[in-house]
Specification:
By secondary structure, the protein is of the alpha+beta class. The chain has three domains: 162 residues, FAD/NAD(P)-binding domain, CATH 3.50.50.60; 161 residues, 2-Layer Sandwich (D-Amino Acid Oxidase, Chain A, domain 2); 102 residues, Helicase, Ruva Protein, domain 3, CATH 1.10.8.870. Strands 3, 4, 5, 6, 11, 12, 13, 14, 15 and 16 form a ten-stranded mixed sheet that branches. Strands 1, 2, 7, 8, 9, 10, 17 and 18 form an eight-stranded mixed sheet that branches. It has a two-stranded antiparallel ribbon with strand order 19-20. Helix 8 packs across helix 9.
């Protein structure tokens, strides 16, 4: 029997999972279809930031920056286990943007978004501040401002989990092969021979949005899309302190250097127009050299491409606003609704950025309200994501409480579990009384109990899902450990999946 839904969402990235959560929380029956793994493409290839976008002020994108700045604290409060504050150091480069321009931009940055818990901007004397130690002596002045970090792939998974908690049907590795309108509703042909029906269809396919419109629905997109490739690299930790750097480049792009998982530094990103298949995007040697050169311009100790321990690339699906350079293309979003007489409604999402996904989801659901009379209003602004039901500054307390209940846990393991699962870490550990109760140890603190949890409750299926999206333990796993995990997953019973 074909199941009927109010809403079918194609795409399990941040926008698709956010829309599914928002709509399910308003009482709609929701089906989310993802052809691969949740956050399997662009949404796990970001700079891992919740930020206003300081450089967007140069392009007068004040509404986007204001909305983004306001979302920093909203998302930090909603998910304090996978998000938190960062301080960014911007060394002043005399040959690039004038100091007064930077001051003016940072003044707006401090005041546009209604900041209440993040600390304000301050001026630094880099000759005497620890932030100046890793830098070349020529950089004597700088500015420090606030933004936030986030685990991007876990943000997607937690939105999907919350959608499921509100009744949504989340189907990963299930593509939508075709959709046709019949009697004002959508009939969907799914991979593996499945079928479904939906009153409204949402196309949140990210870089595949136009392809889905054409190949699945037979429509042509009205909104032009520009694919922009972003590459990041990870190297061994470059400096001792916990602040980040934002470096200005001569080509007017910026590059971040961010402390990453204790022992590493994340460097990115590039902005290049991309004409290839988003499914096969990969970093190029030229991009890796560019990133190393960009940070080496500022650092006492240059970064060699040979030191790269991990690299990744993603394709941003930006609305094509005619900007001459990829880095100048707008990060704002467009919601294109097609509901001509006699047709079933379809809403396509173009553009957007990680930071504003929740606002985009609200706007998308509101745009569909006409089809669901009596649907409740927006609800996510004060609602915690799964595991995030504790104070925004309470991560240390949650860690101590977990260790009190499970004294056999080493502090780094307890902290990683809390940083991944928040208050649900205890539910994962269950009745364990010692490490033996956690089952097989795969390496880097990953146990069979955690793997089983990820398969049961977070749709993980492969070693890559677990090591590079549900966690970043791939940075610490060797080839033999990865293969052992893959073999274990292959032998799990189908009832766990």
């Amino acid at each position: 029997m074909t199941r009927r839904f109010d809403l079918a969402v194609i795409g399990g990235g941040i926008n698709g999972s956010g829309i599914a959560r928002d709509a399910a929380g308003r009482g709609l029956s929701v089906l989310l279809l993802e052809q691969g793994d949740l956050a399997g493409a662009t949404s796990s290839a970001s700079t891992k930031l919740i930020h206003g976008g300081l450089r967007y002020l140069e392009h007068y994108a004040f509404r986007l920056v204001r909305e983004s700045l306001a979302e920093r604290e909203v998302l930090w409060r909603a998910a304090p286990h996978i998000a938190g504050p960062l301080r960014f150091v911007l060394p002043h480069h005399p040959g690039l943007r004038p100091r007064w321009v930077i001051r003016a931009g940072l003044f707006l940055y401090d005041h546009l978004g209604g900041r209440t818990i993040l600390p304000p901007t301050r001026v630094l004397d880099l000759r005497h501040d620890p932030a100046g130690v890793p830098l070349r002596p020529a950089f004597t002045r700088g500015f420090e401002y606030s933004d936030c970090w986030v685990d991007d792939a876990r943000l997607v998974v937690l939105n999907a989990r919350d959608a499921a908690a509100h009744g949504a049907d989340i189907r990963t590795r299930t593509g939508c092969l075709a959709a046709r309108a019949v009697d004002g509703a959508w009939r969907l042909a799914l991979e593996h021979g499945g079928e479904a029906q939906a009153r409204v269809l949402v196309n949140a396919g990210g870089p595949f949005v136009s392809r889905i419109l054409a190949s699945v629905l037979g429509y042509q997109a009205v909104t032009p899309i520009r694919l922009v490739k972003g590459t990041h690299i990870v190297v061994p930790r470059l400096y001792a302190h916990d602040r980040c750097y934002i470096f200005q480049n001569a080509d007017r792009r910026v590059c971040f250097a961010i402390p990453y998982h204790d022992d590493f530094t994340l460097i990115g990103t590039t902005d290049e127009d991309y004409a290839g298949d988003p499914a096969t995007v990969a970093p190029s040697a030229a991009e890796e050299r560019y990133l190393c050169a960009a940070v080496s311009e500022y650092l006492r100790d240059p970064v060699d491409p040979a030191s790269i321990v991990w690299r990744y690339a993603g394709v941003r699906p930006l609305r094509d606003d005619g900007a001459s350079k990829a880095q100048e293309a707008t990060r704002d979003y467009v919601l294109e609704l097609r509901d001509a007489a006699g047709e079933a409604p379809v809403l396509s999402v173009f553009g957007g950025k990680l930071t504003t996904y929740r606002r985009l989801a609200e706007a998308a659901t509101a745009k569909l309200a006409r089809y669901f009379p009596g649907m409740p209003g927006a609800w996510t602004v004060g609602a915690p994501l799964p595991g995030g039901d504790f104070p925004y500054d309470g991560i240390d307390t949650v860690c101590l409480e977990l260790q009190r209940h499970y004294p056999f846990l080493a502090e780094p393991i307890a902290r990683r579990l809390v940083r991944s699962y928040g208050t649900l870490a205890g539910e994962l550990l269950g009745d364990a009384r010692d490490t033996a109760d956690l089952g097989r140890a795969f390496g880097a603190g990953l146990s069979a109990r955690e793997v089983n949890w990820l398969v049961r409750y977070e749709w993980a299926r492969t070693a890559e899902d677990i090591l590079w999206r549900r966690s970043k333990l791939g940075l610490r796993f060797n080839a033999a450990e990865t293969e052992a995990l893959a073999r274990y997953l292959a032998l799990l019973p189908a009832t766990m999946r």
